TrEMBL record:
SUPFAM superfamilies xref list: Nucleotidylyl transferase (SSF52374)
Entry's family note: Belongs to the class-I aminoacyl-tRNA synthetase family.
EC number: 6.1.1.2
GO biological process, alphabetically ordered: tryptophanyl-tRNA aminoacylation
GO-annotated cellular components: cytosol
Keywords: Aminoacyl-tRNA synthetase, ATP-binding, Ligase, Nucleotide-binding, Protein biosynthesis
The organism of origin for this protein: Candidatus Amesbacteria bacterium GW2011_GWC2_47_8
Domain of life: Bacteria
Protein name (Swiss-Prot/TrEMBL): Tryptophan--tRNA ligase
Keyword DNA repair set for record: no
InterPro entries per record: aa-tRNA-synth_Ic, Rossmann-like_a/b/a_fold, Trp-tRNA-ligase, Trp-tRNA_synthetase
Keyword Nucleotide-binding found: yes
GO molecular function: ATP binding; tryptophan-tRNA ligase activity
Amino acid sequence: MSKTRILSGIRSSGRLHIGNYLGAVKGMLALQEDSAYETYYMVADLHALTTPYDKEKFAEETRSVIKDYLAAGLDPEKSVLFVQSQVPEHVELAYYFSTVTTLAKMTHLPTYKEKVKQLPDHVTMALVNYPVLMAADILAYKAGLVPVGIDQEPHLEAAREIARRMNADFGTDFPEPKRFATKGEYVPSLSGEGKMSKSVEGSYILLTDGLDEIRAKLAKAPTDERVSNLFKLVELFKHERMEYYAAGQKRGDIRYSELKEELSLAIYEELKPMQEKRNKLTDEYIDEVIKKGAERARKVAVETVREVKEKMGILV
Ligand code: ADP
Ligand code: TRP
């Protein structure tokens, strides 16, 4: 029996934070280590083009995500690590998928509406097409499981709908991809408002932050008890101390300085080995990983595109 394929990706728009790590990368790692699965992990550089970017830094940001992946433990011997734009079949497949996707559906997605609010001057065709390209990323590999955070659920629903439509109209055999959830599927912002996100300054801790940076960021985090930000991080990084701090909060004598210091140390302890590994990675090695990954990914994607063209009645 052939293995279930997994696909995931992260946009190359800045360094990864602990929300990305807990919500997406940890799931990617767990599935990589399970021999029931064949794992494909990419850098979604084409998706990063849907919001304003700096062309001088863009290629380096793509490499940087591959570095973060390797530092976190993704292994090119176990997973296919690649860059989305180097497998042009994703774009081709997205075009075919766009023929069964209505504009109404895409413009009603909450993720789309949020971006329109954030960047009213950048409502491009590429932005509307974002979920269609994401569906193509996933379905090019016929992936059944996608390790991503909970905020990506509307995009997965769109991918399932595209899979159903294609199967019904053309007799393809796409699976309906499900989200693979982790304990950290929703990491709140340090400020307590919304989720941790790289587009919100003061909301995140980067995987590359040192102990002093982590301390300084946690020092600014509000300790209002209606805000669950710090408790969520304790739950994720220092689980064994949950009861102790919860009891303190109930009695009203919790010491947040103690909590923050313990939490800083626990987070740093988890990040330190990754940072050490990251520092040892050379650009030559990164480029080699990227090149090999694209070759391996393309083999599968080319096959899916050929099959889709045939089923859609396009001359092959
Ligand atoms: P950001 O919102 O910081 O720009 P992305 O949208 O690039 O992050 O998300 C990359 C991956 O990390 C996705 O799988 C997303 O679901 C996950 N992710 C992002 N932020 C969080 C968070 N705060 N908690 C859990 N997972 C997250
Ligand atoms: N939309 C995802 C994000 O913002 C990135 C992404 C692009 C993705 N294509 C994907 C995630 C395919 C999983 C599968 O994080």
